[in-house]
Structures are given as C-alpha cells and as structure tokens.
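Give me the fold.
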Amino acid sequence: MYRRLIGGRAQIVPCKTSFMTSGDIEEAVKLHRRVTSGLSPEIFAPTGERDIERLVGGDGVSFGVWFEKRLICMRAVIVDGDWVNETLAHMGLGEDEQNRTVYTDHCIVDREFRGNNVQFLTHYAIEQKIAGRYDVFFTTVSPKNSFSLQNILGCNFVIVGIKKLYGGYLRYVMRKKLSTGLPIWTHGHLVIPISDIARQQEAIADGCVGYKMIRKHRGFSVLYAPMAERSPKGYWKNMAVGKNTARAQSSAA
C-alpha cells in the first residue's frame, strides 16, 4: 500500500489483513482516537470503547489492515440481532425478526494510508465472510462527508432515507441487499444537489433511491431514480418536483 510521508512523499509498504479478535482491542481504540480526534459529530460519530470491545467480540465482525504492528484500517459490522434491531429502531426502521440484517458501524483509515481504496476492499472482505448468513446491510453517512459517501455508494449501497441521528445530526440511511432486489430505473434520473435535503427527501418519499454521486456546478449532487419491479410508466411526467431540479437526458453509466 502507499504510505503518505511528510513533505508530499510516499512509499510503498507491505501490509497484512486479518479478521480481528478481542486481542486487538487496544490497537482498535488507538486507531479510533487517532482518526476521530477533532472531527465534528456532523461528519462522524465516534464509536465508544465499550462498543469497540463488542465489535471485535461475538457481537460483531471486524476486519483490520496492519502496517507492521500498527492497525491502520478497521471496518466493523454489528451482527448481534438485538444490537442490530436497537440500531434499526434508532433509525426509525422496523425490526428484523429473522436476524438476516447487519449494520456497518464504521470504517476508519489512518491518514497516512488514505487513497488506497481500502474502504472498498474491506467491505467486500466482510461481505464474503458473512454473505451466507445475512441478506441486508445498513449503514449511515453524513451528507457532509462526501468521500465516505462516494465509497459507500461504490460498494453498491443506495440511499433510502435522510434523518437526524446521533443527537440531531443529518445522516443518509444507506442499504444494500445481497439477494436479488428491485431494479433501479435510471433513465431520466433526478440530479439533486447534496445541499438540497428537502428535494432529496421528497424524491425518497416518492419511491426513489440515491445510487450515485457526481460533481456538478461547483459541488456534489446525487442521482435519484425509482426502485420498482416494473418500469414506472409516466412517473417522470406526473412527478411534482422543484423547478430547479436538473434531469439527465440519458441513462446513467
């Protein structure tokens, strides 16, 4: 992996990966403190030490990337049924009585190792391990955290809600289904600026999901389109949207 050094230099260094155990708690806490120190809860809500212990224990599945003896990336997923349902309730979602849902608590990367696509790689490492037991992933991300949003969308999550969580801070509610889900009808998608929360909420209420982020007009926008079993004929003609909503003229790539 590339390791960023002082003065704009970088070097390629060997790293190793492993699923984490209770013996890794100390390094997990250290990494969390390094990465989250000074971050506003508007951007990222830190995970408490007690929850970190649970995430590397039997209540979660955690995957780590190591440089020498230092943990430089950690992805943690809640799998305990009661804990997952508590989290879903906090997001205003229904319980999963069949215990087929997991929640990605966090993925954090040491500043020296950002830009190596490890958020993408660690998600699929965990997904491959637990795919036979679980069908749905949920997670949240701040609309102000464009880098994490891009990474999560790149892992094929979609935006299914926008809510105030963690003490009143806006978060996208993101979902990924591992089993075959409904198609997204991207022809004629809506292009809505990230800053326009009201229009995004309106699109979600009308059956759309956010599936891609693009840079447009000096800022970022999210592409929204209907998710339905059949093509929503007449949807775009009949849908009432704000007059400034931009619409693409062709299908998304």
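Helices lie at 25-36, 49-55, 81-90, 118-130, 146-154, 197-205, 235-238.
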